[in-house]
């Protein structure tokens, strides 16, 4: 039996053993136990301010309507679609205000993505300046209802929201997750499923790693062999898998994510991590000889030929075509682990390529190695290191760069939870839920001020991933820890509170069919 097969069987055994108490409890009970009433503060990620009004909640009934107008209507429709199956109520979306309503209102004065939620016996009012704020408030509102609200069939129960007021806003503008499609290709349906789960926790960026030594996963019309060769069967780690996104696939993912207020950030890794591109186009090597295809997990051995004009024609074509179909502001050009590119050549490459991103209307974005280049002064730098200082990043920040924090020993979702975890890697250490939660982005790099921090991101590399079950198991629940660090105020950072709220969320994942890791650090409901 191969490694992947052993990993699957091991993970299945772990899941069955872990779920046994839940199965036994379900079989022995004639009906589900009553859960404690949900409070305004029982939300993931934690809200900024909450003022409960005990006894003054709002009860949904068959007569409840949702009111909205203008740009608020699509968000109101999403709320209605989420609540109709479990309640069995029609919940029509109407324009006029009336009693017994959940009102979604756009008005000035709220922070970007912030919202105010007022809940009383006569109705609910959700207010924000823009639709993104309303959408964030809808995710909070859904968590204030019992988990059964997400059921696909009507449930007989009392659907009640706790009374009071929530005033909420994000700590950081950028709250991201990354999914690696290059080491193993994930189909559009799997990516959409991941987007759905990300949106529940106010994640607003999805970074797609689209090329690496093993495979090339996005169609580029001017260089068609990139996907014909680099997306062929057998181009994943271990020779497993293949596939790529057509331009229509990519545009549909961009649209699907935007409907959930998530911005797609595409990445083409250069000048290293390019073996797949060089297999397809040998002229991208300095000697014109195609390297052998690689399906192992080694890094650092490939490099574009920095002295060749064709390298920059290639880079510009790829950047241009990606920019044309990416409405978001960022285009990620990688830049990490270029150990086979001499330092001077690396700086030459960045000096020519970073301006190409700007030429096509995007903000340059790259792993923290690009901070070595003076051309990164207005770039976004993604820090993935484990050290507490970074002189090159500090220098770039002083020149105007912004930073997204992805410390590998805290936020890399492909790291194992512990030594017995099936799948995953361990080069950055084991990351259990508390390890992912117990750090402060503002204090990670002592030589970078918080004012330079754009946000946080949780990368999920795919060397050991094959399907959505693998994504679920490694991403959840740790991704929620990173989401809370990105959204919630520093004052709300509290492990005991997070641990309790996370444990109470478990039934929602079970109902969604998300095979999350049942961490022993959490008391799961």
TrEMBL record:
Q: Does the keyword Signal apply?
A: yes
Keyword annotations: Glycosidase, Hydrolase, Signal
Q: Where is the Beta-hexosaminidase bacterial type N-terminal domain?
A: 42-168
Task: Give the matching InterPro entries.
Answer: Beta_hexosaminidase_sua/sub, GH, Glyco_hydro_20_cat, Hex-like_dom2, HEX_bac_N
Query: What name does UniProt use for this protein?
Result: beta-N-acetylhexosaminidase
Q: What is its EC number?
A: 3.2.1.52
Q: What's the top EC group for this one?
A: hydrolase
The protein's matches in PANTHER family, at most eight in alphabetical order, are given as:
BETA-HEXOSAMINIDASE (PTHR22600), BETA-N-ACETYLHEXOSAMINIDASE (PTHR22600:SF57)
Residue ranges of coiled coil: none
Position of the signal peptide = 1-29
Which family is this protein grouped under? Belongs to the glycosyl hydrolase 20 family.
Keyword Hydrolase on entry: yes
SUPFAM superfamilies (UniProt xref): (Trans)glycosidases, beta-N-acetylhexosaminidase-like domain
- All copies of the Glycoside hydrolase family 20 catalytic domain together span 172-340, 348-489
Q: Which reaction does it catalyse?
A: Hydrolysis of terminal non-reducing N-acetyl-D-hexosamine residues in N-acetyl-beta-D-hexosaminides
